[in-house]
Write a structure and sequence with these properties.
The protein is α+β, with helices and mostly antiparallel strands. The chain has a single domain, classed as endopeptidase fold (from Nostoc punctiforme), CATH 3.90.1720.10. About 35% of the residues lie in helices and about 25% in strands. The chain is built from 4 helices and 8 strands, in the order ααββααββββββ. It has a 6-stranded antiparallel beta sheet. The radius of gyration is 19 Å and the shape is globular. The termini are far apart. This is NlpC/P60 family protein.
């Protein structure tokens, strides 16, 4: 009987451990954060100033979701869906702001039609995206974007 109790306790402990690990938004290491930042910075230098074009997928004009597709494919070997709305269903939703990491996708809803917009989080409340007015830029979430914030998703 004592042996069965020990086995039960081990199984219970492992089950609880998996439950907590599976539900957490684990922080990445400083090394990983630094590597992601370097990759995104290099990508930004290649695309900076590219004008916005709805449906655009090239450096002659790009929309926000195509920009994220290029970034994740080229720098992280990760495929993303074509539209912002379908991107917003991928990965794990990050509920607490202090769990956001470099490389997470940040989503916004804009205007009365609630158009979806996406960018990549850089840390320190900054994100890279394709702006309709300024093209590919880095913006501060705490400015205009804070009122339109929707969600953050971890896909890396």
């Amino acid at each position: 009987m004592l042996k069965n109790n020990k086995i039960f306790l081990k199984i219970l402990f492992v089950s609880i451990l998996f439950l907590f690990v599976g539900c957490s938004s684990a922080k990445i290491s400083e090394r990983e954060r630094s590597q992601r930042t370097a990759k995104i910075t290099k990508f930004y230098k290649e695309w900076k100033g590219t004008r916005y074009r709805l449906g655009g997928t090239t450096k002659s004009g790009v929309d926000c979701s195509a920009l994220m597709q290029h970034l994740y494919r080229d720098k992280f070997a990760t495929a993303l869906p074509r539209t912002t709305k379908t991107m917003a269903e991928k990965g794990e939703k990050v509920k607490k702001r202090n769990n956001w990491e470099v490389g997470d996708l940040v989503f916004f809803k804009i205007g009365w039609r609630k158009t979806h917009h996406v960018g990549v989080y850089l840390g320190k409340n900054k994100f890279l995206h394709a702006s309709t007015s300024k093209g590919v830029i880095i913006s501060n979430i705490d400015e205009y974007w804070n009122d339109h914030f929707w969600q953050v998703r971890k896909v890396l």
